[in-house]
Amino acid sequence: xxxxxxxxxxxxxxxxxxxxxxxxxxxxxxxxxxxxxxxxxxxxxxxxxxxxxxxxxxxxxxxxxxxxxxxxxxxxxxxxxxxxxxxxxxxxxxxxxxxxxxxxxxxxxxxxxxxxxxxxxxxxxxxxxxxxxxxxxxxxxxxxxxxxxxxxxxxxxxxxxxxxxxxxxxxxxxxxxxxxxxxxxxxxxxxxxxxxx
Length: 197
Hints:
With 197 residues, this protein is an alpha/beta fold. It contains 7 helices and 6 strands. It has a single domain, classed as Rossmann fold (3-Layer(aba) Sandwich), CATH 3.40.50.620. It is 34% helix and 17% strand. The longest helix is centred in the first third of the chain and has 12 residues, at 18-29.
């Protein structure tokens, strides 16, 4: 019998924003997964660690952002794995711990274009389906492997980098940040002096 389908949405969520939540909901609404797990990464090996807010804050905000979204949760699973966080290792550990579930990887077009640089990229493609969500500034190729599906949904053009840059300029963040988190996230960005890198 086919197991429950889980879309693994990995990221730094530095910080979480409305676009992350909208994307998770769109995956469910398009029938691509039964649940979406925001896999908060302590450290993405392809990004500098210096610009990251504390992982406990990023996890707490992600959980608060999806608290009212059935079937969407924020996970600290990678916090308990060797660092930095390699997706191949995470997916294997998830499959071992949850043999009754079927895992799909959810990534953005920017990550798809960088996918050849990922550790075990070919193994991931051979063993897991992928969902790629478009980003206007990262056009996807016409031809994709059969295991890769493109999420055809209108998405909010928001990035965590833009939010960090806006915070540095002292601009309000309410239009990007999930309700109830704007003040706390803005204060944390000021306190930790996170750069827009």
